[in-house]
Amino acid sequence: MGNFYFDIETTGLDPRKDKILTIQYQELNRNTGEPLGELKILKEWESSEKEIISKFLTDTNVLDNYVFSFIPVGYNLSFEHGFLKERTRINGLDVVDILNKPFIDLRVIGILMNKGEFKGSGLDKLTGKEGEGSNIPIWYNNHEYEKIIEYIVQEAREFIKFNIWLYKKLPFLLTQFKEESNVY
Predict the structure, then answer these.
(1) Residue 1 pLDDT greater than 70, yes or no
(2) What dotted CATH number matches 3-149+156-180?
(3) Domain layout of the chain by residue ranges
(4) Distance (Å, whole) CA 167 – CA 161
(5) How far is CA 175 from each of CA 39, 169, 180, rounded to the nearest angstrom?
(6) Which end of the chain offers a freer environment for a tag, N or C, measured as fewer CB atoms within 10 Å?
(7) What is the pLDDT of residues 105-145, one digit of tens each?
(8) Is the sign of the CA dihedral 8, 13, 16, 18 positive or negative?
(9) How many separate helices (H) and strands (E) can be counted in the chain?
(10) What is the C-alpha end-to-end distance of the chain, expressed in Å?
(11) Which are the contacts of 7, defined by CB distance < 8 A and separation ≥ 6?
């Protein structure tokens, strides 16, 4: 059973015509959110989109019948879900449906921390993450792959820092809620 930080970078926003450039994942401790092992980054420019998706499917056991083999933990996982589902189909691979198994999407918490507002609730607005990834297609077209990798590493670091903080703080909020609402 494994929780995994999970994210992708793409050439655009439409999974029917844009492709997946990178798939990144890192196992996380289920009780602390701390990273276990190294951040893995599969890069399309080193092989192909089909190959990186195939490697991801094999390495993570995301298609296992045991639904807890790969639990994605991310920010706005519906984006990754839409791309993976469509791009696996287009590439003739077994279709991946990450939102019909256990997953943890911190976007909801970001929205609530932003007083229920979607605007301003991006990971780049809540953490030290720089930018929203709109430069990824430009860097890709200019073969500036090192900039893409730097962005991915920085984004993963900020996400994991946020995730660990939530693991530490949210149990106290539950205790406080129960005390204030007499739920014991």
Answers:
(1) no
(2) 3.30.420.10
(3) 3-149+156-180
(4) 10
(5) 33, 10, 9
(6) C
(7) 999 999 999 999 999 999 999 998 988 899 999 999 999 99
(8) negative
(9) 6, 5
(10) 31
(11) 23, 24, 25, 74, 75, 80, 152, 155, 156, 159
Contact in structure between 45 and 145 (CB atoms under 8 Å): yes
Q: How far is Cα 7 from Cα 116, in angstroms, rounded to an integer? A: 24
pTM of the complete model = 0.94
Report the alpha-carbon distance of residue 63 to residue 96 in Å, rounded. Answer: 7
pLDDT per position as a tens digit, 24-79? 999 999 999 999 999 999 999 999 999 999 999 999 999 999 999 999 999 999 99
CB 30 within 8 A of CB 5: no
In this structure, what token pair is assigned to residue 167?
């693991």
Of residues 182 and 170, more confidently modeled: 170
Amino acid making up residue 74: G
